[in-house]
Amino acid sequence: MKQVLAFMLVVVLMLVSIAATAHQVAGAIPVAASNTLPPSVAHFDADVATNAYLAQLSPEAKAKSDAYFEGGYWLMLWDLLWALGVAWLLLGTRLSVRVRDRVERLTRFRWLQTMIYAVPYLVLTTVLTLPLTFYEGYVREHQYGLSNQDVGQWLGDQAKSLMVTLIFGTVLLAMIYAVIRKAGRTWWIWAAGIGVAFVIFSTTIQPVYIDPLFNTYKSLPDTPLKAEILSMARANGIPAANVYEYDASRRSSVVSANVSGLFGTTRINLNDNLINRSTIAQIEGVLGHEMGHYVLNHYYKFILALGVIIVIVFALVNWSLGWMLRSWGARWGIRDAGDVAGMPLLVALLTLFFFISTPARNTVTRTIETEADIFGLNAAREPDGVAQVYVALSKSRKMCPSPAEEFIFFDHPSGWNRIHRAMVWKGEHLGDPDIRAQDATAPLGAR
Ligand SMILES: [Zn+2]
């Protein structure tokens, strides 16, 4: 445990130093002071403006979203314990060994044995986890009014997810077991490489092959909104030729958008909630953020940072797998690390160490999201638009967490921080005619 914490600390310190360097660079650029503020806006206070936005939420609504989000902290733990319990069941009952013995009679090719073993393994773990998945993804989402799917639709989505998992999971596991058998003591380095390559592969094909399985995408008709979005894209160096709308409203009312694609497949996607429920200012504010991810190369930075975490996780799995097999291998009937009967153990250890890496992974994404927020404010110049969106998104997020809570559990900055950043930006731009005009037409707390 000490070693895990030491590794975590190194990752965290690296991330903090990267963040600190970024802040120093930003701080070195002089900010032009606006001396020409009219008296009415000279007293703009970002704290007061932020609190005015938060005051739009009733105490009941705030209590509800806090309860939803805080419950999520515990669910992460229950998810882990459940997954470890399922692994223990498969190993302890020797079900895993029995499946392996059968698979070994079917073929002598070991890579094929792994793939065949992986099919009942993935189906069984999905089925055994279904009660918890159903509570988390269906029952609880309805309790908090965050989902409008019926059971049939939800189960349909689960079946599609399982299919995707079966196709890619069997190949991934076969590759990992191949390097465990071939590379010997250095297998974990190769496996981490395969893990990173797999993340790149799946994120590349996802917008084109996976997302359409779950949502219908259609080209946005030629409206002034579309022209405005494409103009914004051109202005920010995004080579997108078209804007798509997808039907997220059949699942929930959450607004969302993304700029997806690599290697010449760039596209801008807006969900129908964003289009149907938002003002132009809100849509542009959201798209400014999404374009920030693209322009600031967040995808590549994310892969690099995640790659570091994946290497550390596999190193820890390697170390603990050896120890576990020496202590429990004979009892569970697992011959060695390359024995496919140990798959539940391997996956359990991966799950455990990825769970422990949660604050590091969240800090990576939270840092990136903060940068995208700042880019979006500069690109769209809609501080009130984005603040309104953050208030709307508060249904499923705790708005005012403690700093430690935000560090551990938040993959985006908290609602308070995001609104506050928008209001600080607004305060620094009140001398600009467009922002002043917005302020006159859309006073704080309106809409
Ligand atoms: Zn983002």
What would you note in describing this structure?
This protein has a 4-stranded mixed sheet with strand order 1-2-4-3. With 447 residues, it is mostly helical. The chain is elongated, with a radius of gyration of 24 Å. The chain is built from 17 helices and 4 strands. The protein has 2 domains: 2-9 and 43-216 and 295-441, no CATH class; 217-294, Zincin-like, CATH 3.30.2010.10. The chain is 72% helix and 4% strand. The chain has helices spanning 2-28, 46-54, 59-92, 95-106, 110-143, 151-183, 187-214, 224-235, 272-277, 280-295, 298-332, 343-356, 358-380, 383-393, 403-409, 415-428, 433-441, and strands spanning 217-219, 243-246, 257-260, 267-271. The protein binds zinc ion. Zinc ion binds next to helix 10 and helix 13.
How many strand segments?
4
User: What does the overall shape look like?
Assistant: elongated
Helix % is over 70%
The small-molecule ligands in this entry are: zinc ion
What Rg is obtained from the alpha carbons, in whole angstroms?
A: 24 Å
Largest sheet: 4 strands, mixed
Number of domains: 2
Give the helix tally: 17
Q: Proportion of β residues? A: under 5%
Low-confidence stretches: 1-36, 441-447
InterPro entries: CAXX_Prtase_1 (IPR027057), Peptidase_M48 (IPR001915), Peptidase_M48_N (IPR032456)
Pfam families: Peptidase_M48 (PF01435), Peptidase_M48_N (PF16491)
Keywords: Hydrolase, Membrane, Metal-binding, Metalloprotease, Protease, Signal, Transmembrane, Transmembrane helix, Zinc
Transmembrane segments: 73-93, 114-135, 162-180, 187-210, 302-325, 337-356
